Amino acid sequence: MRVYLASPLGFGSLAATALPGLRAALRARGHEVFDPWERPAEDPPEREAAVAAMRRIGRRNAEAIAAADTVVAVLEGMEPDSGTVAEVGYGAGLGRRVYGLRTDARDAGDFPGLALNLQVLYFIETSGGRVVRTVEALIAALDETAAP
Question: Can you count the helices (H) and strands (E) in the chain?
Answer without folding.
Answer: 5, 5
